[in-house]
Amino acid sequence: MTARYVESSRLPTAWGEFEMHGFEDAEGNKEHVVLTMGDVGNGEPVLARVHSECLTGDALFSMRCDCGMQLHAAMKAISEEGRGAIFYLRQEGRGIGLLNKIKAYKLQDAGADTVEANEQLGFGPDMRDYSLLKPMLEHLKIKSVRLMTNNPRKVAALEEQGVDVVERIALQTASNPHNEKYLSTKAGKLGHMFEAQG
Ligand SMILES: Nc1nc2c(ncn2[C@@H]2O[C@H](COP(=O)(O)OP(=O)(O)OP(=O)(O)O)[C@@H](O)[C@H]2O)c(=O)[nH]1
Ligand SMILES: [Zn+2]
């Protein structure tokens, strides 16, 4: 997959002013954004988050997952450093799309875990393709990152794009009764690295 740079603008947010860079991915017919703060192209490792779209968590305050809280935590961390980048990839539902994610939630309400629900719908557990990061990283001249994630596959994916992941920073948010099973499936079946919470 590839993405074409289109335009940039300012984006003032609750966590300060970011620069928003828009990319178009003709293959997936999707529009993606990268939010940056400070000079990310100066060669120093960039505090970065690769965030997969989650309409329910990012915009609708869902408590079924930790996406919204992770996005806010990443924006806050970047604003505190005054420098960083958030790659906001439109790969809703780990790449299966919003309507299929709703179908997966329905199956989860009947007892399936996140991975089983995807499989029952005929999808792999994680359909995301990170190759469209490459043109974004090149455009922004980012060669090394300190990556905020619990997902080892994201670290591997960035390294495959030729980016040096000099550090992985855990991005842990609080669990609640609605997302406990989701978080434990991520740790148990998807290899996410969570530290024990007291
Ligand atoms: N198919 C499916 N996708 C989900 C479900 N819950 C959340 N998602 C999607 O999962 C994506 C977020 O990925 P996660 O696996 O939660 O976390 P991650 O981004 O890989 O890892 P971190 O960097 O640690 O956050 C978003 O695109 C969500 O829409 C679910 O139950 N089923
Ligand atoms: Zn989510």
Automatic annotation (TrEMBL):
Its cofactor is Zn(2+). It is an enzyme of class 3 (hydrolase). GO terms for cellular component: cytosol. The active site is at 126 (proton acceptor), 128 (nucleophile). Catalyzes the conversion of GTP to 2,5-diamino-6-ribosylamino-4(3H)-pyrimidinone 5'-phosphate (DARP), formate and pyrophosphate. Keywords: GTP-binding, Hydrolase, Metal-binding, Nucleotide-binding, Riboflavin biosynthesis, Zinc. The keyword Lyase does not apply. The gene is ribA. This is GTP cyclohydrolase-2. Residues 6-169 form the GTP cyclohydrolase II domain. Zn(2+) binds at residues 54, 65, 67. Belongs to the GTP cyclohydrolase II family. One of its GO terms (biological process) is riboflavin biosynthetic process. Pathway: Cofactor biosynthesis; riboflavin biosynthesis; 5-amino-6-(D-ribitylamino)uracil from GTP: step 1/4. GTP binds at residues 49-53, 70, 92-94, 114, 149, 154.
